[in-house]
Amino acid sequence: MKGVVLEKAGPEPRLVVRDLPLPSPGDYDALVKVGACGFCHHDLLVMEGVLRRGVKLPLVLGHEIAGEVAEVGARVTAVQPGDRVVCLPTDACGRCQQCLQGREHRCLEGRGLGHRVDGGMAQYVRVREASLVKVPPQIPWEQACLLACPIGVALQGIDEAHVQAGETVVVTGAGGGLGVHLVQLARSYDARVLAVTSSEGKADLLSKLGAHEVIVTGELDFSEVVLALTEDRGAEVVLDTVGSPLFPSALRSLAPSGRMVLLGEVSGREVRLNLAELIFRNAKLIGSVGASKPHLEQATRLVAEGKLQPIVSHVLPGDEVMEAYKLLKSRESIGRVVLDFTTIF
Ligand SMILES: NC(=O)c1ccc[n+]([C@@H]2O[C@H](COP(=O)([O-])OP(=O)(O)OC[C@H]3O[C@@H](n4cnc5c(N)ncnc54)[C@H](OP(=O)(O)O)[C@@H]3O)[C@@H](O)[C@H]2O)c1
Ligand SMILES: [Zn+2]
Ligand SMILES: [Zn+2]
Known about the structure:
Bound molecules: NADP nicotinamide-adenine-dinucleotide phosphate, zinc ion
Order of helices and strands: EEEHEEEEHEEEHHEHEHEHEHEHEHEHE
Number of strands: 18
């Protein structure tokens, strides 16, 4: 099979299309013929060498995978060849204490696809059956690959915040892959949604997706606008997908007893934090990573029922990973850039 392999990480990453051996499924594995694979900011950070822990090169990137089961191991019962499926971002065992509680994102035997083991930017990928959820035929590959990450990830993140109807929710990086789906989900909880974007051109779509106000940052500290829009109280919830570049403003935006869910860190830098700012606000900072199977199943239902719209910015041939990289780097993409692995090679 052909796959796109990251050979060198750093400021000038090197990717090559290579012939790779077709993985053979173990007893509980499925071999999935990749339909489409999303290009996540996580892939960009691995390419740049910012995310290094557990990464061994050469590596096939990609954890946003949808495709058709091509072959299954001897003891697989959950899926069969021909099934349309989507994978969890972290390949899970399905048997450990965490998996049995529906916390597959914390699987004790979990393996990050496209991070610790080869991922979906190839014609085939091997995953454990426990990581797969079936996808109904009305969801095309380029949307199906978004169901786990970013949509399932967004669902899990917003659950961590326990958003209540009528609360004000700020979403940062609102025009990105996670952001566009967080905006829709926050709106569906009947929250007042303030979308923060650095890209003026994304404002219209964000309003259409449900943002009550779009705050376009520039040199501006967006917390001042959040405070002005909330009679100086601040937002009960901040869903942050950007991390350190916006952290001071995100924290200043938070109302007393507010909750900030940290989903992303685009730069890999550290932040300065005066602990008194947390203490006197009674604030909660909550990290959220990955998606559990219940969240992936919920994402699949919401999209199948037309209650949530997967936002695909571009669909590129699978060997144009560098083009996807450039689109994210320049923040030109709105929603997710998807790579199509059905027609290339
Ligand atoms: N927790 C998890 O499990 C999980 C899952 C997936 C991704 N992530 C992480 O979440 C972050 C976002 O991922 P994504 O896939 O949504 O990325 P993305 O599609 O590239 O979107 C990120 C958005 O953030 C804004 N942005 C980027 N750099 C910025 C900067 N320096 N200052 C201000 N705004 C900036 C831009 O939005 P605007 O143009 O609207 O300003 C950009 O579109 C990454 O760190 C990624 O690794 C975490
Ligand atoms: Zn992702
Ligand atoms: Zn497990």
